[in-house]
C-alpha cells in the first residue's frame, strides 16, 4: 500500500537541512557539531510521519479511490487490506513518529511539542481537495516541514536557510502534484473535487506547474545567498536541477499525459537525491 522508497521525495531535503545545520554548528564552534542520535531521530520521524500520512490518506479517500478508474485497484478498494488493518498501521506509525522525536531529548524538546500539530497538518491534506484549490500547495507545505523540522531539531531555532529551502520544496511539490492531478480531470470534475487542472484546465494547470518549478529554482539560488556555506558545486547542481525540471515538463503535454509517472517518480527522485548529494559534497569538501 505504501512504498517506503517514496520517502525519497522529502527525506533528502530533511537530510540536506540537517547537514546544513551541522555545518552551521561546526562554523560557530557549537558542541557537538554532529550527533548520531539526531540523525536517527530524523530518519525515524521522516519515515513514520510519511507512512502515517499516506495510510491516513488511503483511509480518507477509500470511497473515492473505489470510484476512480485510476485508483480502484488500490488495496482498500479491492479488499486486499481492511480498514481496521490500515487504521492500526496509521496509529502505529503516528506513535512511531512521536517516539522518534524523543531521540532529541533532553537537549531539545521542541520536536516533541510540535509532533501532534505536525501530524494534524499532515492528515488535514487528505481532506483539502474537498474544499480548496490550494490542496496542491497544502501537500507542498506538508513536505516543506521536512527541512524546517530537521533544522529545528538540531539547532532548536527557526532560521532563513531552512525556510527558504522549505519554500523551494513547497513549490516543487505543488508543481508536480498539479501535473499528477491532470490525470484525474474528468473524475475530479464529476465528483466536484477541487484541483487546479479540474478548475482551470490541463493547459493552464501545466503552465502553473511550470511557474512553481521556476520559483523553486529561484529559491534554490536565493538559498546560496542566505546560507553562504554553499559554493560553486551547489550552484552547478541548481543549474542541473533546472534542466531536469525543463525535461520533466517536456515529458508532459496537454494532449499526452502517458508519461506523467516517469515525470512524477523518476525525474523527481533524481532532483531530490541529486540536491542532497551536491549540497553535502559542497559543504564537506
Notes on the protein architecture:
This protein is mainly alpha-helical and 285 residues long. The protein has a single domain, classed as Up-down Bundle (Four Helix Bundle (Hemerythrin (Met), subunit A)). Helix content is 75%, strand content 0%. The radius of gyration is 19 Å and the shape is globular. The mean pLDDT is 94.
Tell me the Rg in angstroms. Answer: 19 Å
Question: CATH class, please?
Answer: Mainly Alpha
Uncertain segments of ≥5 residues (pLDDT<50)? none
* Main beta-sheet strand count, sense and barrel state: none
The CATH superfamily name is UbiA prenyltransferase
Task: Give a quick summary of the entry.
With 285 residues, the chain is an all-alpha fold. It is built from 13 helices and no strands.
Amino acid at each position: 500500500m505504501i512504498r517506503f522508497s517514496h520517502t525519497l521525495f522529502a527525506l533528502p531535503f530533511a537530510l540536506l537541512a540537517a547537514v546544513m545545520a551541522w555545518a552551521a554548528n561546526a562554523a560557530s564552534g557549537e558542541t557537538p557539531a554532529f550527533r548520531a542520535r539526531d540523525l536517527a531521530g530524523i530518519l525515524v520521524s521522516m519515515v513514520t510521519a510519511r507512512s502515517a500520512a499516506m495510510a491516513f490518506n488511503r483511509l480518507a479517500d477509500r470511497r473515492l479511490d473505489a470510484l476512480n478508474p485510476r485508483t480502484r485497484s488500490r488495496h482498500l478498494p479491492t479488499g486486499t487490506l481492511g480498514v481496521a488493518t490500515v487504521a492500526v498501521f496509521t496509529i502505529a506509525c503516528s506513535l512511531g513518529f512521536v517516539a522518534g522525536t524523543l531521540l532529541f531529548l533532553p537537549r531539545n524538546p521542541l520536536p516533541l511539542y510540535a509532533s501532534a500539530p505536525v501530524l494534524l497538518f499532515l492528515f488535514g491534506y487528505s481532506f483539502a481537495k474537498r474544499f480548496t484549490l490550494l490542496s496542491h500547495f497544502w501537500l507542498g507545505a506538508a513536505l516543506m516541514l521536512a527541512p524546517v523540522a530537521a533544522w529545528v531539531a538540531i539547532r532548536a531555532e527557526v532560521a532563513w536557510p531552512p525556510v527558504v529551502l522549505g519554500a523551494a520544496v513547497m513549490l516543487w511539490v505543488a508543481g508536480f502534484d498539479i501535473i499528477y492531478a491532470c490525470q484525474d480531470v474528468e473524475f475530479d470534475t464529476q465528483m466536484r473535487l477541487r484541483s487546479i487542472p479540474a478548475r482551470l484546465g490541463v493547459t493552464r494547470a501545466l503552465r502553473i506547474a511550470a511557474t512553481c518549478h521556476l520559483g523553486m529554482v529561484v529559491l534554490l539560488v536565493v538559498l546560496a545567498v542566505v546560507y553562504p556555506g554553499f559554493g560553486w558545486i551547489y550552484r552547478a547542481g541548481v543549474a542541473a536541477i533546472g534542466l531536469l525540471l525543463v525535461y520533466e515538463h517536456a515529458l508532459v503535454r496537454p494532449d499526452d499525459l502517458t508519461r506523467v509517472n516517469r515525470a512524477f517518480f523518476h525525474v523527481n527522485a533524481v532532483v531530490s537525491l541529486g540536491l542532497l548529494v551536491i549540497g553535502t559534497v559542497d559543504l564537506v569538501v
